[in-house]
Design brief:
- Pfam families: MFS_2.
- Belongs to the major facilitator superfamily.
- With 348 residues, the protein is mostly helical.
- The protein has two domains: 1-236, Growth Hormone, Chain: A (Up-down Bundle), CATH 1.20.1250.20; 244-348, no CATH class.
- It has helices at residues 3-12, 15-18, 23-30, 34-53, 58-86, 89-108, 112-117, 122-149, 151-154, 158-189, 195-223, 229-233, 250-280, 287-307, 313-335.
């Protein structure tokens, strides 16, 4: 019997890996994605609005967002492969968190290369924001992949794995609501009379989000141990499935297409909602935080109710289709909503 097989046998028979994970350990783990969640909520809700407000063209703002998404797509694949090969989850998580904090503050903190080069041309600003957007999404991907992949390496207990994932999702809710609470306070307390005031509003939101997120990252890194289960799983006798295997499965494309279209709807709606309530409906500045918060709270309540149901294949398809139809009708209602009826936006 080889040493790796012995190690794998010992770990799989170690009670510490089959027993339920403690409550505090679950909370410490769940807090690790707080920085990613709160900055992502700010990113998709306010980035385009911020960039256009400070003078970038709509095309330039779109290029900044696109550069970040492209970097995220490639980084997720490569970082996932590197973590799978070499492990060291906490190192990847910590490094990614540093990139997220630095690049996020650089985007909302103004054009750093412009100050260094003593120039403020539109081209330099756009390139600068594109670079920092790409760095932000690379760091975001590293933190996300490292944090998510830790679950299966922390414990062999299937119930604890579900609890860890649920706690992570709960902190996502906390992060989103915290962001919108901060934004609501900033937009309500301060009035943007000048261009500088407008930039300061977004900087307060961004810096407050980074501070809160970094506090939770510190708790995660200091209180969560590096998973030891990864070492044993490398000696597992099961053959590793090639990445090309999934491209031969029709179900892979079906799930990917449904998820991609759903995320597309969510991200586009989140990115342009602030534009709509301010520029089209002429609502108050606080509506940029209040409307997204109400939408998020309602979706969270519905998701809790749906989790209590017994799901079958037919019921899943029926509810998914009903949700899509409801979204289309509500979206159409929002688009034709007159300016003098903007209060109904909160109901839709």
């Amino acid at each position: 019997m080889t040493s790796s097989t012995v190690m794998n046998y010992d770990i799989e028979n170690d009670d510490s890996f089959t027993q339920p994970v403690g409550r505090w350990s679950v909370l410490y783990y769940g807090s690790g994605h707080m920085l990613n969640d709160i900055t992502a909520a700010c990113w998709f809700t306010y980035l385009l609005l911020f960039l256009t407000d400070i003078g970038l063209s709509p095309r330039g703002a779109a290029a900044v967002m696109l550069s970040g998404q492209i970097a995220d797509g490639f980084a997720t694949i490569f970082i996932g492969e590197l973590i799978d090969r070499f492990g060291h989850f906490k190192i990847w998580h910590g490094a990614g968190s540093v990139l997220v904090a630095v690049s996020f503050s650089s985007v909302f903190g103004g054009c750093m290369p412009c100050r260094i080069l003593s120039t403020s041309t539109l081209k330099v600003e756009t390139i600068s924001y594109c670079v920092f957007a790409a760095i932000f999404n690379v760091g975001w991907a590293a933190t996300q992949v490292a944090h998510m992949s830790m679950v299966n390496c922390i414990t062999l207990n299937s119930t604890s794995r579900v609890v860890l994932t649920s706690c992570r999702n709960a902190f996502t809710m906390v992060a989103n609501l915290s962001l919108y609470a901060i934004a609501f306070i900033v937009f309500s307390v301060s009035t943007a009379k000048t261009h500088a005031d407008l930039e300061n509003q977004y900087r307060w939101i961004a810096y407050s989000s980074i501070f809160i997120g970094c506090c939770f990252v510190g708790i995660f890194l200091s209180r969560t141990e590096e998973p030891r289960l990864k070492m044993g799983l490398r000696g597992n006798s099961h053959a590793r499935i090639s990445w090309a295997y999934w491209f031969k499965k029709i179900l892979y494309y079906q799930v990917a297409l449904v998820y991609m279209l759903t995320r597309l709807v969510v991200n586009v709606s989140q990115a342009y909602l602030a534009f709509y309530v301010i520029n089209d409906l002429r609502m108050g500045q606080s509506a940029k935080a209040l409307v997204p918060a109400i939408i998020y709270i309602c979706s969270f309540i519905v998701s809790i109710l749906l989790q209590e149901m017994a799901w079958t294949g037919q019921r899943l398809k029926a509810y998914y289709s009903a949700g899509g139809v409801l979204w289309v009708f509500c979206g159409a209602g929002i688009l034709i909503l007159p300016m003098n009826m903007s209060a109904f936006m909160l109901l839709e």
